[in-house]
Design a protein that fits this description.
The chain has 253 residues and is an all-alpha fold. The protein contains 14 helices and no strands.
Length: 253
């Protein structure tokens, strides 16, 4: 079947580098993990990018997918191979997301990996996407500029209608707020999150992010209210326990 074919591909790749003995007692899952780690180290097998790309596209576990992504990005850096980077970007954008465990583990390898030149942005969504890439590469100023362009290009003044037409308009506001917060512009970040919440009052991340920006700017009461709303909307969010602890701390003072 397909799984067997994938395993044989990895075995063939690793056998050329003397890795096969390490796999004799391995389970199927361990085999894939060892393959990813080994390929990331050797970066020599001719079809390593293709094999890892197939594995990354099929793997559902975010931790193991991150191992494959690390291997691809190591190869991308050593070979200046933008194909390998593109496979990781596709997994991030189409499957796991920017706030996933997968990307948390992968982003430190992404910053130095080469990416294919992007087409000149034309739509608000294009500018937003390029802003995300720039922020991932550490270009905060460039990201803020692109997010701003995405917001300017939205032709509608009615915010509710704008959300119906293009939900990424909200995402651009939140992304620009995140970039401004990282830069230390907490007032600008609070303003962007506020506009995003006018569009979508049930966007839990925007409430959480605005709480952090307000807290950093000294607005403890505003931060507490935003954290309460975040917890109302997303009580099971992975960051909810930390939010509850911070809220309790704010209420105690």
């Amino acid at each position: 079947g397909t799984a067997g074919a994938e395993q044989r591909t990895f075995r063939a790749l690793l056998a050329t580098e003397g890795q096969t003995p390490a796999l004799k007692a391995a389970s199927d899952v361990d085999l894939a993990l060892v393959a990813c780690q080994a390929l990331g180290r050797i970066a020599l097998a001719g079809d390593a990018v293709t094999a890892l790309g197939r594995y990354l596209a099929a793997e559902e576990d975010e931790g193991r997918a991150a191992d494959a992504a690390e291997a691809l990005l190591r190869i991308a850096r050593e070979r200046k191979d933008t194909r390998a980077t593109a496979l990781v970007e596709a997994a991030r954008d189409r499957r796991f997301g920017w706030n996933s465990l997968f990307w948390t583990r992968t982003r430190r390898f992404y910053a130095d990996a080469p990416s294919a030149p992007a087409l000149a942005p034309r739509t608000a969504a294009d500018w937003n996407e390029r802003g995300l890439v720039r922020r991932g590469k550490g270009d905060v100023e460039g990201a803020i500029s692109d997010y701003g362009k995405a917001i300017e290009l939205d032709p509608l003044s009615d915010l509710t209608r704008a959300l119906e037409l293009d939900p990424r308009y909200t995402r651009a506001l939140i992304n620009r707020g995140n970039a401004r917060q990282k830069k230390g512009d907490f007032e600008g970040a609070v303003a962007d999150y506020g506009k995003a919440l006018e569009l979508d009052p049930r966007h839990a991340d925007a409430w959480k992010d605005r709480a952090l920006a307000r807290l950093s700017s000294g607005d403890r009461d505003g931060a507490a209210k935003d954290l309460e709303r975040f917890l109302d909307l997303a009580p099971g969010d992975p960051e909810a326990p930390a939010a509850r602890a911070k809220l309790a701390e704010l209420r105690a003072r």
